[in-house]
Write a structure and sequence with these properties.
Distance between the termini: 34 Å
Structural class: mainly alpha
Helix content: over 70%
Shape: rod-shaped
Radius of gyration: 20 Å
Largest sheet: none
Length: 110
């Protein structure tokens, strides 16, 4: 049987992976916007060769973003399951908002 501390450590580790995946999705969204602007510019001046290469780049960026988004969704579900397990182990007395605030403080000091 797991103790509450090991579950809490696992939640923090998975939460770190989740936050990193979310930041990567945001970064990829910005790159997709830039690639779409370049594609639209190439389309407006009828440059087929540039359109083709920009479309390939845009498609690959969207594919990677979708994969990372799915990964983030899985990590979110894993966090929720671990939080439920921690509530069960502690009898429902653990306050998750307090641990989120301390994690934010830890990240600000880095």
């Amino acid at each position: 049987m797991e103790d509450a501390y090991s579950v809490l450590c696992e939640i923090r580790a998975v939460n770190k992976v989740f936050r990193r995946a979310c930041s990567q999705v945001i970064l990829l969204n910005h790159k997709i916007e830039a690639a779409k602007a370049r594609y639209d510019r190439a389309r407006s001046v009828r440059r087929l060769s540039f359109r083709y290469s920009n479309r390939l780049k845009l498609t690959s960026l969207e594919g990677v973003r979708n994969l990372i988004y799915e990964h983030a969704c899985l990590k979110c579900e894993e966090i929720e399951a671990l939080q439920a397990k921690l509530r069960q182990l502690t009898g429902g007395v653990y306050d998750f908002s307090e641990s989120d605030a301390s994690e934010s403080d830890d990240q600000m000091s880095d």
